[in-house]
Amino acid sequence: MKKTADIENIYQLEGTVPLGKAIPFGLQHILAMFVANIAPIIIVAGASGLETSQSAMLIQSAMIMAGIGTLIQLFPVWRAGSGLPIVMGISFTFVSVFCYVGPAYGYPAIVGAVLVGGILEGFLGLFAKYWIKFITPIVAASVVTAIGFSLLSVGAASFGGGTGNEGFGSASNWVLGTITLLCCLGFNIFAKSYWKQLSVLFGLGIGYVAAFCMGKVDFSAVRAASFVALPALLPFKPVFNLNAILSVALIFMVSATETIGDTSALAMSGLGRKVTEKEISGSLTCDGFVSSLSSLLGCLPITSFSQNVGLVAMTKVVNRYAIATGAVIMMIAGIFPVFGAILATLPDAVLGGCTIMMFGTIVTSGLRMIAECGYSQRNITIAALSLSTGIGFTQVPELFGIFPQLIQTVFAQNCVAVVFLVAVVLNLVLPKEAPSWPRF
């Protein structure tokens, strides 16, 4: 009886779960974000002209820092961390600006900019109570919805085999993605009790076996990986270039809006309540200061992962201790690179079969938050205009061609940033009381 009560704690923020049963839930979270955690490193390292050995070192650091950041979010240190089941990882939000800064000023300039930008976001989190009033529920709801919509193309790209893959959209990738998706759905329908919440892990497992049988699993990275390695402190000496710092600091502000949206979505979809000011403050503080710490290992910024918010929304598994096992797995993968290399063999199409449904859950969470705000004409105007401009304009990035490069870098392909900006401006300028406006 005690055993059943323990496992039921997976639906509670607090409480312990037997280690053997907690590990699968932690592993499910890591598999959902593993490829996305290392992909930004590979892209930026390539654009910055780093050697393969340097890229491998940064991937190792990324896994360790993702684990540390997740643990701090789960179990706050001082005022850093939200105490919510937020999983951290290397942010894709910064990729475009880093692909500009790296070739222009060198990778050490990226490191210096991340160090400064992280401290800036950290202090922004510490003093959130002075500005958080501008992020009203309808603004947060619009941002969460935008995050969900922005991820749909990411899930679709993975389903097709991964952007840039020469076999993108091939029949084999369609088969793998479909098998994984159907297994996730089937397991969710027919499994009983808490096993139902492992549908993503089950789908990934069956999809991986199918990919192996089809010859779609590449083990070359596993053979090349070393067994044990420790991260290097300051592998790149930071260079503080003003242009790089200004560019990256702006993207940190964009990342902060995503973190607010992720934290709000997680509280609503996972815990069934509104997020608190303290939780947003702690989440942003962790984002910023852990990113600065990440730069000391030569790594890129760490931020909350929307993929995992979608997983929580889908499974309702919010137990901090269960998810902490995933953070430990990630750190082990960093210290033992061969373990990380094995996890990295998961084909994109298999991952896409699971994430396409998870990302859709974020969209529905955002829509639910909008409904919670009420359908007044004012709320409808803020949500409709911010989402239509944010999602619509960034589908046609050429619209931003008349603006300086910095504006293009921040907004042209980042719908979350545009949605946030428009929603905040509308929230400030539209009249608070409009009794003549009907409610629907």
- The arrangement of helices and strands along the chain is HHHEHHHHHHHHEHHHHHHH
Number of helices: 18
Q: Distance between termini?
A: 49 Å
Q: What's the overall geometry?
A: globular
Alpha-carbon Rg, integer? 21 Å
Tell me about the largest β-sheet: 2 strands, antiparallel
* Number of self-contained structural domains: 1
Structural class: mainly alpha
Question: How many β-strand stretches?
Answer: 2
Mean pLDDT: 85
Percent of residues in helices = 55-70%
Low-confidence spans: pLDDT under 50, at least 5 residues?
1-5
How much beta, percentage-wise?
A: under 5%
* Spatial order of strands in the largest sheet: 1-2
Show the helix and strand layout.
Elements: H1 2-7, H2 19-47, H3 52-74, E1 88-90, H4 95-105, H5 107-126, H6 137-159, H7 171-190, H8 199-213, H9 220-224, H10 242-271, H11 277-296, E2 302-304, H12 306-315, H13 320-335, H14 337-343, H15 348-373, H16 377-395, H17 405-411, H18 415-429
Antiparallel strand pairs: 1-2
Helix pairs in contact: 2-3, 2-4, 2-13, 3-11, 3-13, 4-5, 4-10, 5-10, 5-11, 6-10, 6-15, 6-16, 6-18, 7-8, 7-15, 8-15, 10-11, 10-12, 12-15, 13-14, 16-18
